[in-house]
Amino acid sequence: MALHVRNSLLPAALAFGLLLAECGSKSTADQANQSAAAELPVMQVAGPGPDQDRKPVKVQIPNYPLSSEADLDPLICAIGNARVVVLGEASHGTQEYYAWRAALSKRLIQEKGFDFIAVEGEWSDSYRVNTFIKGPARDSAAAVQLLRHYNRWPTWMWGNYEVASLVTWLNTHNQAQPAANKAGFFGLDVYCLWESLADLMPHLQTTDGTAVQAAQRAQRCFQPFSPSAEGYALAVARADANCRAETHRLWQAVQKTTGEGVPPNGSLWRSSMRWWPSTASATTAPPPAARPNPGTSGTGT
Asked: Distance between CA atoms of 230 and 264, rounded to whole angstroms?
């Protein structure tokens, strides 16, 4: 299971420092890395007691300069055998965060066998990325074009150069991997309620009429709120509307049609239907975390 959180910088820095200290005590190589690190910054804070009696207290926070991917060694060591790594950022859209997060993700995939990345992005759009990186070899221009599917504000959050570079790398990396070992890319957010219905309908035309009718009833239920998911959530909160029953019947019809499997051409089918049960009754609670495969390891960004 992949998780996503937003970390505040100071607790993360302090925890990172403690982890590095413990990691560095385990090997000569890591001790050498620590001794070669830049001089530790000193932060002075006021001690307890009356103002006239206070003495400054020096707090040293370990820091490690980042100039190449090799400088991530202390962090790779601190991660150890963790199966889930959560990568936060102090601001969305900052180039340096994206670049170093991508560098760390590559090393986790190559050196520690991590097999998927989960991001704070739309499930359906991100599943297109997943299909892309697991498919045939493609170039960076194709990756840039692919990321245009992230057309919901803020489009620049995932449609940027650093992500396109990472997507291209993942596609290249996967070419040498067997199908079961290909790294994946998944989104944790579900905003595409109406887009999912639109993607789903063409697949249902070849099934029995029960699934088509269930999809049409769901569409009619949600139609008054299109295209505002927030409007539907408010209506649920006020008990003015609830499309849970309609979406549950649609989910059951799809499961009956597919035998709980996915058609050979079902990438959009999977992305459309993955979180329908939770979306139908959602108010302010987030959707469940992505579960590409039980027992896998992943990074959350």
From this structure: 34
Quote the CA–CA distance of 221 and 193 in Å, as a whole number.
12
Answer whether residue 142 shows pLDDT above 80.
Answer: yes
Q: Which amino acid is at 133?
A: I
Distance CA 298, CA 266 (A): 23
pLDDT at 42 over 80: no
Domain range summary for the chain, segments of one domain joined by +: 9-190+294-300, 193-280
Q: Cis peptide before 227, with omega less than 30 degrees from 0?
A: yes
Cα distance between residue 55 and residue 209, in whole Å: 79
How many secondary structure helices (H) and strands (E) does the chain include? 13, 6
State the maximum Cα–Cα separation within the chain, in Å, rounded to a whole number: 83
User: Using alpha carbons only, how large is the chain's radius of gyration in Å?
Assistant: 23
E strand or H helix that includes residue 85: strand 84-86
Q: Alpha-carbon distance 268 to 283, whole Å?
A: 25
pTM given for the model: 0.64
With contact defined as beta carbons under 8 Å apart, do 134 and 126 qualify? no
Assigned token pair, 87: 């990568």
Dist. CA 250–CA 51, nearest whole Å:
68
Percent of the chain scoring above 90 in pLDDT:
33
CA angle 76, 78, 83 (to 5 degrees): 75
Give CB contacts under 8 A, 24+ apart, made by 30-35.
Answer: 30/73, 30/74, 30/77, 33/64, 33/73, 33/74, 34/62, 34/74
**Distance from C-alpha of 11 to C-alpha of 55, rounded to nearest angstrom:** 24
